[in-house]
Amino acid sequence: MPCTCQEAWRERKYYVVSHNRRVLESCTWSGDNQKAKAPQRLLQVGTSIYSGKHRSSEDKVQALHDMYPRQQQHAEEDIARREKVGGAILTFVDYRDIPIYITSFNNLDRGLRQLLAWLRRAGMTSIGILDNNSSWPPLLEFFNSPAMDGIQLLHAGANLGPDAFWRLDLHLRQTGPFIVTDPDCVPDDDCPLDLVRKMLEVSERYAPAKVGPALRIDDLPEHYALRDHMRLCESDYWVRKYDAGDCWNAAIDTTAAIYQPGWEKWPLASQGGVAHVRLDFPYVLRHVPWYEDSANLSAEARYYMAHVENGYSSSCPQPIPMEQA
Fold first, then answer.
1. What residues does 159 pair with on adjacent strands?
2. Residue span of the structural domain in which 301 resides
3. Disulfide: which of 6, 122, 152, 203 matches 128 by Cβ 3.0-4.6 Å?
4. Is 134 buried (19+), middle (13-18) or exposed (0-12) by CB count in 10 A?
């Protein structure tokens, strides 16, 4: 379906979204040519319109309002880009503008620094860190350094654990798709930079679906004391491959996944029977602590373990039945 755009977009991937948040087609706008090239498969993403109006949380959230000026700017830009095509109101959404929230606690060189660098290389424009009352001095220095330019910092006010995003009801404030991730999960060296685009593609294929990269276990080092245990536990997630061959039917906790507005951490039957899908190679992550030398832990690792207030361990849930996908 050819369509025109009032602005000349230069070699950036956009998704044409209708008022009901269903993508009609995806297009690449190039140079001064204002016609869409080669419409691709249908995708489902949320609108990128942000109201900028958010009530304050009863929990101890500080400076939440700092997260929204950029989103309000997006809203104004999106409204300016709207036009009618075939009777539908459309807006153009770049997948690189999807907000990514990183839940943080006393982690800097065990994943967070590397993750931020990768996201910037991938061109992601809306990155936020939700910090769980960290006290690791190098991390606090980092938060106040130029390295944080363009990154929004939200303070939970307490250690609310890996579920902090949902405990603070931030999922209820999202008006489009969003990503929540742990700070110690970093894309593999060979992971393509269009990871978020791939997550969107698969989330539509098995819609509704919570989609994220799988965690590598094939290269865990011998010096990691829990190597065999983690291989055994995580192997359950590498069993049931979908027919398409590029993803697995496997549950995802908080490692990294894309969600739709209002979704809980475990969006299941109450939200439409959501499937859980892990991407296959090359779209995979490395869980940084699994590569540490257990006999020679870094000062940061020792500090983290000494300051964990509420122990948290992941179990090995059973894969979501295929018929739910």
1. none
2. 12-312
3. 152
4. buried
